[in-house]
Structure of histidine kinase:
Amino acid sequence: MTLRRQIAAVIALVSCLVALAVGALVHQASVRQHTDQARKSAMAALDAALTGYDATGELGAGWHAAADDPALPAELRRLAERGRQGSVLGPGPRGTAMWAAAGTDGRVLSVRIDYADDERAIADLDRAVAIGAALSVAVTVLAGVLAADRISSRLRTAARTARTIARGDLDARIGPLGRARDEVAELAAAVDSMSAALRSKLAGEQRFTADVAHELRTPLTGLLTASELLPPGRPTELVRDRVRALRDLTEDLLEVSRLDAGAETPDLSDLPLGPLLTRILTAAGAEAELRIDSATVVTTDPRRLDRVVANLVANAQRHGRPPLLIAADGATVTIRDHGPGYPEEVLREGPQRFRTGARERGGGHGLGLTIAQGHAEAIGVELRLSNHPDGGALATLHLPAPVAGRSRP
């Protein structure tokens, strides 16, 4: 149940309980007032009847006075026979009546005052209270629903922004949620402050990574040049190999920092997918089987798509086993090897830089998949990593369709 419904349900329940309590109290007070008034009137009529009876030996015609009235309630009759006076609310010839009786000269004298008008007045008051209570409950519940909807709307706004931040957009802010200075506004301010702090920290780390990679470029270029001057031999090859690896790592770090900063704008165009994949695989020198089911045209940046496919192919060649199969079905491209598959942490959390798993037994820094994912996001390609049911790693690329009205190059 949503927070809005919970608040509305609680307000409705409390309002109904309050309305019932108030209605019961008003009903009891009304009954007590009418009963006391009728009892006073009956006792006054009884005193007047007794006075007239003692003076004249006859009962007056008013107040429905009678001697030994058979309709007199039994408990009041027994009380009067013991020489005491009393009154009771009981049935009468024309509905409920207030009886008063007293014993005198061996007889029971009684008077009766109709109570039907009082009952109608009480019923009318009960109806008025019920209508008023129902209207009050409806207004209270409506006001509660509106207040709960406002709170819920503000919380949903905060939740949407928090999810946006979790997806990596650290520029997202909740902002002021109205003029209220309550706990929701405090939560929004805390989330915005957290996002700003994360943004600042991440920007600092990106600058540090870019600066380190940039500063390493010059000495690495010098080392690579110097290694070319070494005499031929196995030690020289090892030195050159390690220097090239360090240079490639530096270039990857620079590329990751550019992707994190979003410094490059993709150059999108509509291109036939088949020739594009053929050109990418030829340039990569990959020994792979290419299957193209249709002459599909996709919207992409060929340079970035080249980087995505080349990195996925290189990852499959380094950590998987042949045969390597690349298939294009419509705008969907799959790259599958027959190795051990992606590690569970990669499938669960996605590519992580400088994190390698069981699949990376051949080495690596975890940057290839990170760069492929970054370029894929930049050109609107959905990249999914999974393991094929029959074994091997499976990377699936869903490319966007061409935009209507855009001319092909």
